[in-house]
Write a structure and sequence with these properties.
six-stranded parallel β-sheet, single chain, four-stranded parallel β-sheet
């Protein structure tokens, strides 16, 4: 097996095209991908777990350690404090820190706190006996390196199945423990080809291509115009490919493509379907809504939103339908009751309903004393009435579940979740809603597990939990899903979201949709004193500037391999002015160095030169003048010229649309002239 490794190549979905003879790779891997491959080869693979599970487990270890450095923050905001300290711990282990080594008595507070917590941790696979923290990426890296070192020291023959690893960057410049990983792989017989050694080839190998891409920047005033301009470019490329379709283009997506997909659909082109994943989708909103209505201080708007909660899905014929968490008759009856008596607090109405919810056969005298909520339940058939009564019982104020001081009894809270779980089971019986029901059930299951890991007591019971932390756990356990408004259709287009993952073929045209600045500065984790102490303890701290340089170099290497790059950018997004992506400045420097007489060494002059930068309007005129990429004519139905309505009264009248003045005339048969 031949592997190509790059620091920015995690998630790259392609085997790279490399011109050097025999240099084609079977796998393209980044840091995480290489460690996962070695875990499989060494028999160290384990089931993955949600990151929030590790936060809950680490929170329990922090509570036992009770170090003075985080004590005050932990008392106020335990969940977010645990997430922050866990990130510090993983960063230290990725750098090679070993808490088992003797620590300096004058060690700095943060490192001392990490060492204290580490004494309360037993890292192991999920569900293994004695495990208190499931391994993360840092633990996997440390475990793989430990096993490689043991194999190398014992001279044992262990077939890794890897012949060659071609590293895109110089191995010595890789962060953390990775230089040592490659050193141990070399000792075990794997050929590691360093980027400083591999100088041949043309393409994404790190070698200079000797050419400068033809850069074109199309600027639009806002996203709507930018989407139309980008669609025109893609249509022009598809039309110019002589029947080969859109395979001559690669698309780099820098923003969601909802608007762009609309314009592509109008032109009969494949849609890209790129959208950001979010935890605020519909499937993540049911659990927090349910938890809000079972609190003692019930909000009528939350209750109405819960009653009206529906999921839009498709039936067997593909038609849209809405499926509710409650049966439609129950929804209509209870929402109607709230509408009839908006001044009655739902908690009070629920209390009277729960205490005196009569059946349909009660006499009229008793019915006169019932609230609208009571009457709504009484009018339902028995199965639906039972569902409504069970919900009513959940709306009863429970001082035991929600005690004083802003805490929640987790045992009683978990018992109330049983009703919601039953409703999800019923919802999942619908074919169209099954997927959404599974996502919501996954949210509920993960939330329950996090509650167990967070509040478990050594005595076998469960501790109360603060309402603030409960909200944090609800948010952390929510499923991360993509918008259903975007759909990708099959095409030969290469669609990627990271410049480092681009795979240029000869003659490929790169279209960069929304090439705006989306970079975030990498924060400095360790101060100089901490970095020195970590180094003394065996870690290898890589400067932030070096890591950023590796990321920029990997992305630039891929971009420079293209012959032509067209970037479409809006001037404003969400009402705010935006800047172009910093990688374009690097490309501008390449252009300036290649043609100094035209551009000089000024990056701004390069990026604003008329040969490079144009507007969406100028681009549209240029294409229309050549007769290319014209938009198909819209099919607009012709509206009726006469509208007729019947009014109550002595007679009927009809009103003609388009009359000089609005007036009613006696209605006449449709066959009469002028009607």
């Amino acid at each position: 097996m031949q592997v190509r490794f790059g620091w920015t190549l995690d998630g790259a979905p392609w085997a790279p095209r490399i011109a050097a003879e025999g240099a084609r790779a079977d796998l393209t891997l980044g840091p995480r991908g290489l460690i996962e491959l070695l875990q499989v080869r060494l028999g160290l693979a384990h089931p993955p777990v949600a990151p929030s599970v590790r936060v809950a487990q680490y929170r329990s270890a922090m509570q036992v350690a009770d170090h003075h450095w985080f004590r005050e923050s932990f008392a106020v905001d335990p969940w977010n404090t645990a997430a922050h300290v866990l990130a510090l711990r993983d960063a230290a282990i990725e750098a090679g820190w070993d808490a088992s080594r003797p620590q300096d008595p004058s060690v700095l507070p943060r490192l001392d706190a990490l060492a204290a917590i580490e004494t309360q941790i037993q890292v192991g696979p999920d569900g293994a006996e004695g495990t208190t923290l499931v391994p993360g990426a840092a633990d996997d890296l440390r475990d793989v390196l430990s096993h490689l070192t043991d194999l190398s020291a014992s001279a044992a023959a262990w077939p890794l199945g890897i012949d060659v690893i071609r590293v895109q960057e110089p191995v010595a410049e890789l962060p953390g423990l990775f230089p040592e990983v490659f050193a141990q792989l070399t000792a075990l017989g794997v050929e590691v080809v360093d980027a400083e050694v591999e100088t041949e080839g043309n393409g994404p190998t790190g070698a200079a291509t000797g050419t400068v891409p033809r850069l074109r920047i199309i600027e639009a005033p806002e996203e709507f115009s930018a989407a139309e301009a980008c669609a025109r470019v893609l249509a022009d490329v598809a039309e110019a490919s002589d029947g080969e379709g859109p395979s001559a283009a690669a698309v780099l997506v820098g923003a969601p493509t909802i608007l762009l997909d609309h314009e592509l659909g109008r032109r009969g082109l494949p849609t890209l379907g790129a959208a950001d994943a979010s935890r605020s989708r519909l499937t993540g909103q049911l659990l927090p809504l349910f938890l809000s209505i079972i609190r003692p201080q019930l909000d009528v708007y939350d209750l109405a939103a819960f009653l009206d909660f529906t999921i839009t899905c498709t039936d067997e014929d593909g038609a849209l339908m809405r499926v509710g968490i409650l049966p439609a008759p129950v929804r209509r009856a209870l929402l109607g009751a709230l509408e009839k008596e908006p001044g009655v607090q739902p908690a009070a109405a629920a209390g009277s309903a729960g205490a005196s919810a009569p059946g349909a056969g009660d006499d009229a005298a008793d019915a006169d004393d019932m609230t609208a909520w009571d009457r709504a339940i009484a009018g339902l058939e028995p199965t639906h009435a039972q569902i409504a009564r069970d919900l009513t019982a959940l709306l009863q104020p429970d001082e035991e579940a929600y005690g004083g001081g802003g805490t929640v009894n987790t045992d009683l809270l978990t018992a109330r979740l049983t009703w919601l779980n039953d409703r999800l089971t019923a919802l999942g019986r619908s074919d169209g809603a099954r997927e959404a029901a599974q996502q919501i059930r996954g949210h509920l299951d993960l939330f329950t597990r996090l509650l167990d890991d967070t509040t478990s007591d050594p005595t076998g019971g469960r501790r109360p939990i603060m309402e603030r932390e409960l909200a944090d756990i609800v948010a952390a356990s929510a499923p991360s899903t993509r918008s259903s408004l975007t759909t990708r259709t099959a095409s030969a287009w290469t669609v990627l979201t990271d410049p480092a993952h681009l795979d240029p073929a000869p003659g490929t045209h790169l279209i960069w949709w929304s090439g705006i600045d989306d970079t975030r500065p990498t924060p400095t984790i360790w101060d100089p004193a901490e970095a020195a102490e970590l180094t003394r303890a065996g870690a290898r701290i890589t400067p932030v500037e070096q890591v950023a340089a590796l990321q920029v170099a990997g992305r630039l290497t891929a971009l420079r391999a293209y012959e032509q790059i067209t970037v479409v950018i809006p001037k404003r997004r969400a009402g705010e002015a935006i800047a172009i992506h910093p990688l374009l400045s690097h490309l501008a420097l390449d252009i300036a160095a290649h043609d100094r007489e035209l551009h000089g060494r000024d990056v701004d002059k390069v990026l604003t030169h008329p040969n490079i930068r144009t507007t969406a309007a100028d681009q549209a005129r240029a294409l229309l003048d050549t007769g290319r990429a014209t938009l198909p004519e819209l099919q607009i139905p012709t509206p009726p010229t006469t509208l007729e309505r019947t009014l109550p009264g002595e007679g009927s009248t009809c009103c003609r649309v388009g009359s000089p003045s609005p007036r009613s005339t006696p209605c006449c048969p449709t066959t009469s002239p002028g009607c």
